[in-house]
Design a protein that fits this description.
2 copies of one chain form a homodimer.
Chain A lengths: L3 H25 L6 H4 L1 H5 L13 H4 L4 H5 L4 H7 L2 H42 L3 H8 L23 H36 L8 E5 L9 H12 L4 E8 L2 H26 L6 E3 L9 E3 H25 L4 E9 L2 H9 L10 E4 L15 H20 L2 H10 L2 H7 L4 H4 L2 H9 L1 H24 L4 H25 L4 H10 L4 H12 L1 H21 L1 H13 L4 H7 L7 H21 L4 H21 L12 H25 L6 H27 L3 H14 L5 H6 L31 H11 L4 H4 L7
Antiparallel strand pairs in A: 1-5, 1-6, 2-5, 3-4
């Protein structure tokens, strides 16, 4: 059990490391050569140019204006300055709503903390439990922090009423804030959707599982079906090609090109020595070759193959998958088709809103119904295995990383391994490192699982993998920290305990783990967030690329990696803080300030990142909010049950009925909010569609919708090898100097991938 | 523990009582005077007349044709003769599918029984557990039946593998049969819907929670909204009036009329003595009055009040509730409106398919959104209380029925009560009777709860109360029989046990309760079903009415009470047999023949009843099937867990993983079926709507849909005091002699309730 001084030391260390990151960031971001690492968003929007190149060469890389260093913290007011509507314009609604989650944390926990400090701290501190305990149980060391926690209240004390009342107050307050926030986000979303400019996905529905027809091609079948069943509304459709092989070729070519550029640069710098490479795998072994010549040839060969494959995809009817994007004459028509069932058999002609073009996950569009069900079953079982046996894969890797097995497989390493220091490294650190690596790649594993499950949009994939990650963190980090041991052992322990014992076990462990979680918040929450703003990995990669690959301004642009809000990772982690805050609000209120500092600091940092760094992969108009809402409520319910268990260990069993009311009310509140708000996130109301349609018809009577929609849902591979980005703020140029116009940039980008205009416009218009 | 001879005795008694019921039925049904009790369905359809009245008077009441008595069992082939398509025509799809549930029981359990008898019985019987047990545990008496059950297999025996394999086989067989049945019922439903003649509900959508508008009436608001948002489809609408008070008046008048008829009949029979009544409550006390004069006056007074109230409802804008039935030009338009969301706020303009007119539950149409949520919460809590404290209300009534309290309230009864026989009756039987009465009125309580929950159609009300009854039976009858004590005690017991202990407790008790359940099946399943066909209560009531109220043929028709398939009661009870069969299939296969006899017998009886007796209250086109399917699967999962628990008491813990696979697969199968079939029961596909619309437009181009739909959704109170019945087989007259045409019957019915044609056609056409 840690005491106050332990916590102080830990707080000092973590604050210091956070400060160091911030300081490093403050210095690094002022250097012109890092400009593309710390402000990529502005470059992407085309409203920031490379820093001026006049003056001495050194100025190009290092900022010598020392006055600027004095204002090294001025990113904070800058991050706060941009008002929310402008932020939505600038970075999209998803990002704006995402950073509101941190604000929501503050709204929930600041009043709770004030109340808890005002009411519960004195009640706890004046308790006499430890005086009694210290006599009877000398071996159990209680820390000083526990004096402020519920542990210090003696069993069956009347004081516990204060905790119960506070549990009610906190629950109502949390629900009230959540309700208001849900309402606000719903309004924001509806307003955002209503004020959106015309977008292809507003008119388009994705239809899957088109049944095979012996007489007609998929394209004809789709057209006839919708012409008949949506007679006045059907406009045009686009079939989906299975271009996975082609996509692979394009990737391969890109890779080869990078190598070619690398060697060309090398040659340019040292024209006396012609660079060489090896023919084998990754250029590691095989015959020595002239690199430039070799890669030029390889690229040419691949280009030819690509053209053949491209022709095949376009002309082979088997390359058409039984899915299509069907566009309608009006938003009203699309809203109808997306929300209704088309045929008797619900496994055919499945319609849903088309995701926006850059959000489509093309590989999964053709999975048949039964297979989809089998995949979900298998992934469900695999996920269960992953959670409850999550040490199994690690154990497997660790056995491989074991000294004996290494010696067995690679006997020549034996003398090296048997050296003391190496041995202790392998035995002491390797298992820990393997665990760490596994936890790092876990989100990737979950994402792959979501892909196998067969979802058809990146946003859905992210939402699903976020859901899985949330459960994983809940079971393996929260429960796992409280009840030590692997999840499987915990499960066994819980199964062997009676149902009424489980909350007791957890309730007993909760107050004792407060100091552990405080440390966790400081390490993961404070220092981790500060590391996020420093962006060490992108910084290093950018400079490496800059040295080896970049030749032109365009290359530099490609070397820039803005990253994005890693939603499926950050949101579930964030939920852990809500959970901890709610659980400890009645138990150990001392934890709350740490949570509040985390939320405030993270709010600043992510607001800065969203404004200056992250690039948006897609825009879902905050469709993730119901998930956020639900998960916070899950945290709330867990907190209610832990308090219930804790009080039952305090011989306050007669309080159980009072506390059982809370989860019932919370579940009811959840259902109420679901009925009240969720449909705004899942459906598109006809009235709004009609209003937009009518308005558009009045203002743009000459609009040629057909040609507007014609190429919107083309496989990105046919568009020039990259997903075309469609931003919503085309004429937002009241900032910095606008030099390169987006259109011209696009053109040059497309040109790089050798996709001749002929290919980009042939044969893809099914109607 | 019962032995084989006990069971034999019980079987003999129950078979005998069943046979007696059947015999009584066979004799009674041949008497002409009981014709309307045993064949009301044919009268309702207008294809059976009262038996011929020629010949001696006695022939009118008693059947003297003794040859007919010889063929007293000929109802059985008659019940089986009618082929299914004709049955659907005759009694509706709901009834036809309902009796298929019994057939489904046979399909599942006959092969299971054969396999279980072939494989498990020998395995069990040759087990040696009791030889071992009888040495060590002499006090525990095992019956002979247990020799054939899994109890006779010694712990950790290899023989248990047979049970596990059989559990797999039974699960797969059950799922296979269920899948085929679901598919078949889906096809039947789709075919039924496709071949249905034009019905108002195909074109109509119910819209609720119409928001208040300061400038417009509800009717105008509805019209404008749908004219704008469904421009080409909107046809006409009908607002809903709050006519609850008026309905009460009509009921009251009907009651008074019955009294008037009673006294008139009395006077006719004995013209010398003018009948009198008393003015007070129910004519029990108060001033003596001339009965005929008094009731004629009362009826006149009420008629005047009714006219005033009728005027008020029609003219008072406050009598209009914010709901309306909106009809569209085509089924396509209605399908679209029913399945889409209309506005941003999902709590307003809620649209759903209109129930068919006779299915509407008018009282609940005006409940606002928030109230609906609160009602559901309260009813949820109340239902939880009802299940787990279901002895509380009984305890309360029983205290009232207690000797001391009776003596306190009614002291003059003291001498009577203190007599020995009366005392012992009150103490010995009253509690049991109170419990029995409570169980009898339970479905009514559940129905009232469903009404309070606010569902808007009778079919939904019945489905919801059936769901509640199913849970009640599961917890209080099945679990309650296994783990004795009230549900609340059980819950406490389960909570205090560890999660892994619960299946063990149940598993241990299951084989011991086999004889109890066998007796239960014979009492409730055999004798109970035979009692159903005899219809004692309707028989008595009909003859009472016949004597006191009936004057004309029309009165006799009204006295007839065909009853209906009491879906919310019979279906959950039926599920208990599936559950028992599945649970005992691997444990005590000897129980299976009893189940099979029940299913076969009940199939015969209910087929007969559906053909000859029951009147259909509404037609839902088998929309209850997903519930039936789900509940059988719940039974299957329970059976898997009990076997799991049972085997864990047999020291066969290593079989747990094998058996855990089964529930996972079953849940997956449930989800698969839900995705595959359920939407056919919940939605109406656009393609089918379009086909029907197109066909109709081609065959009946002159159809005036507007006038067809105008009065379909009028509150029944404005239609002549009764819900108008709309059958689907208007021209089905190839059976018996058709004498009274339905149309003329209708007219005379409507005339009886004093509803002048003026009222029936004024002011109700909102458009």
């Amino acid at each position: 059990m840690a005491n106050v001084s332990d916590i102080t030391v830990s707080a000092a260390i973590n604050s210091l490391s956070a400060l160091l990151f911030l300081l490093a960031f403050a210095i690094f971001r002022l250097q012109p050569m890092n400009d593309r690492v710390y402000f990529p968003k502005w470059y992407l929007k085309g409203i920031r140019e490379a820093p001026s190149t006049s003056g001495p060469l050194v100025k190009k890389f290092v900022n010598l204006d020392f006055r600027m260093y004095l204002r090294f913290l001025n990113w904070v007011p800058a991050a706060l300055k941009m008002p929310e509507p402008e932020l939505i314009d600038h970075a999209g609604l998803d990002s704006a709503v995402y950073i509101r989650i941190y604000l929501l944390g503050l709204k929930i926990f600041v009043p709770i903390a004030i109340l808890a400090f005002g009411v519960l701290l004195p009640v706890n501190y004046t308790g006499k439990n430890f005086k009694i305990m210290s006599v009877s149980m000398k071996d159990l060391a209680f820390g000083e922090i526990d004096k402020f926690s519920i542990s210090n209240v003696e069993p069956a004390s009347k004081r516990l009423a204060a905790h119960i009342v506070m549990a009610y107050v906190f629950t109502f307050w949390t629900c009230y804030v959540l309700y208001k926030e849900y309402k606000h986000v719903t309004d924001m979303r509806l307003h955002f959707l209503a004020s959106q400019v015309r977008r292809p996905d507003q008119f388009t529905v994705l239809v899957r599982n088109v049944p095979a027809d012996p007489d007609e091609s998929v394209s004809e079948h789709v057209e006839h079906f919708f012409r008949v069943n949506h007679p006045d509304q059907y406009l045009v459709h686009k079939v989906v090609y299975n271009a996975n092989k082609l996509a692979k070729m394009v990737d391969q070519k890109k890779d080869l090109k990078n190598r070619l550029i690398y060697y060309s640069n090398k040659f340019e710098r040292r024209p006396d020595k012609r660079p060489t490479t090896k023919a084998g795998f990754w250029g590691l072994w095989g015959k020595k070759l002239d690199a430039i010549h070799y890669y030029t040839e390889e690229i040419e060969k691949l280009s030819k193959e690509e053209i053949v494959e491209r022709e095949r995809v376009i002309n082979d009817p088997k390359a058409v998958v039984p899915a299509a994007f069907v566009s309608f004459r009006s938003r009203w028509g699309a809203a109808i088709c997306a929300q209704t069932q088309q045929t008797k058999n619900p496994t055919r002609w499945i319609t849903m809103w088309a995701p926006e073009p850059r959000d489509v996950y093309w590989n999964n569009l053709s999975i048949p119904f039964l297979e989809l069900n089998v995949r979900k079953l298998i992934m469900g079982v695999a996920f269960f295995g992953l959670i409850f046996c999550y040490l199994f894969p690690i154990a497997f890797v660790q056995t491989l990383a074991n000294i004996e097995s290494i010696e067995k497989v690679l006997p020549f390493l034996k003398p090296l391994i048997n050296r003391g220091s190496v041995k202790s490294f392998i035995q002491g650190f390797l298992p820990g490192i393997v665990l760490k690596i596994f936890l790092l790649i876990l989100p990737m594993i979950l994402m792959e699982m979501a892909k196998i499950e067969g979802h058809i949009a990146v946003s859905i994939l992210e939402a699903k993998s976020a859901g899985k990650y949330h459960i994983f963190l809940l079971v393996n980090v929260f429960l796992g920290s409280i009840v030590t041991g692997t999840a499987l052992q915990q499960l066994k322990q819980f199964l062997d305990q009676s149902a009424s014992e489980i909350p007791k076990t957890v309730g007993l462990a909760i107050p004792m783990k407060a100091t552990f979680f405080i440390t966790y918040i400081m390490v993961d929450g404070w220092a981790g967030v500060a590391a996020e703003i420093f962006r060490l990995v992108p910084l290093v990669i950018y400079h490496l690329k800059n040295v080896f690959l970049v030749k032109t301004e365009k290359d530099r642009e490609e070397a820039m990696d803005p990253g994005s809000l890693a939603w499926p990772i950050t949101e579930p982690r964030l939920q852990l803080y809500f959970l901890l805050g709610l659980v400890y609000s009645t138990v150990t209120p001392l934890l709350l300030p740490f949570i509040i500092i985390f939320f405030a600091f993270a709010y600043l940092v992510f607001r800065h990142q969203v404004i200056n760094v992250y690039n948006q992969k897609y825009e879902s108009a905050a469709s993730f909010w119901p998930d956020v809402h639900r998960r916070i409520l899950i945290g709330l319910i867990i907190s209610q049950f832990t308090l219930l268990g804790l009080l039952s260990t305090k011989k306050a069993a007669n309080s159980t009925p009072f506390l059982l009311v809370l989860p019932v009310l919370t579940v009811w509140f959840y259902k109420f909010c679901k009925n009240r708000f969720e449909s705004a996130f899942r459906k598109f109301p006809l009235q709004d569609a009609m209003i937009k349609d009518t308005l558009e018809r009045a203002t743009e009577p000459q609009l040629d919708l057909k040609s507007y929609l014609k190429d919107a849902y083309m496989h990105p591979i046919f568009k020039g090898g990259e997903v075309e980005l469609m931003d919503f703020d085309e004429d937002d140029d009241d900032f910095h100097i606008v030099a390169t116009k987006r259109a011209s940039r696009r053109g040059s980008q497309a040109g790089t991938t050798d996709c001749s205009p002929d290919h980009r416009n042939t044969g893809f218009n099914a109607v």
